[in-house]
Amino acid sequence: MIMKNVTLISDWKLRDPYISILKGVLISHIPDVQIFDISHAIEKFNIGQAAFIAKASFPHFPEKTVHIIDVAGKSSDSVNPILLSYQNHWFLGEDTGVFQTILGDSEADAIYQFDSIEKMSWYQKIALMTQALFENRIESCTVPITQLHRILDDQFYYIKKEKSIQGKIIYIDSFFNAVTNIPNEVFIETMQGREFSVSISGSERLRITKMHPFYNPNEKDIYLFPNKLGYIEITYYKGPIAALGDLKINETVEINFT
Q: In angstroms, how far is CA 23 from the centroid of its own chain?
């Protein structure tokens, strides 16, 4: 039995009807589809943030899941969506640059674009492609392509040296923890038991010298935490550190080891 799982990531928020309309069209085409909302709180037009959320979340879903992403798009009936295969998952939506940002230096296994002479809405195109994919007939409504739109987005790039790592704040979660683009394994490998200090470009008064492998209720200082998304997080137990420290997305985070 084929698992018909679909996830949604968008900058649509929840006050408008667009998400429900998309879900309704998907269910009309695929009655047994399972739809999971990953996030609709992406900052408007923030492609890097959408790519970060997608990269951090998609590996936790079963293979062959379809991940629909609509951020910074037109959602216009004139737009023909893109579908690509990557690491046994499918990614679907408008080619705003988000897919190439997810891929980074990797390559997609296959890329398709919607193709039909029949006029239909953007929602219908998304649903039709999803349905065709689950029914193993994706070629019936698409054509293969080789190129994706690429944008200049350095949110995933960090600089690692022998005694330092320089990254940036890429995401602030609903608890006001500041998530960096520094992978957990890179920090732990570079630290090697050494002491460290952290400075943040937009907050000179914050100095961080501690790391805990869990949210520590006994810690009185701000500390680093290797979070479940796979990236180093700046946190303070039950404290909205991003708000208190006035931390902002894209501020530089520099970790120096001694």
A: 20
Continuous H helices in 144-244: 184-191, 241-244
* pLDDT for 174: 87
What total of structural domains would you count in the chain? 2
Do the beta carbons of residue 56 and residue 229 sit within 8 Å?
yes
31: exposed, middle or buried (Cβ count in 10 Å: 0-12, 13-18, 19+)? exposed
What is the reported pTM?
0.82
Residue 182: what residue type?
A: I
Other CB atoms within 10 Å distance of the CB of residue 192: 7
**Sheet with 66-70: strands ordered across:** 34-39, 5-10, 66-70, 89-93, 82-86, 110-114, 142-144
Query: What pLDDT, on the 0 to 100 scale, is given for residue 154?
Result: 56
pLDDT above 90 coverage of the chain, percent: 66
Residues 128 and 114: their CA atoms lie apart, in Å, by 9
* Residue 239 domain boundaries: 159-257
Please indicate, yes or no, whether residues 238 and 181 belong to a single structural domain of this protein. Answer: yes
Residues belonging to the chain: 258
CA dist list (Å): 91 to 2, 5, 71, 109, 111: 17, 12, 13, 11, 9
- In this structure, the answer to whether residues 132 and 71 fall within a common structural domain is yes
Helix (H, G, I), strand (E, B) or coil at 235: strand
Q: Give tens-digit pLDDT for 136-165.
A: 999 999 999 998 887 655 566 789 999 999
pLDDT in tens, 92-119: 999 999 999 899 889 999 999 999 888 9
CA distances from 86 to 53, 107, 154, 245 (A): 16, 8, 21, 38
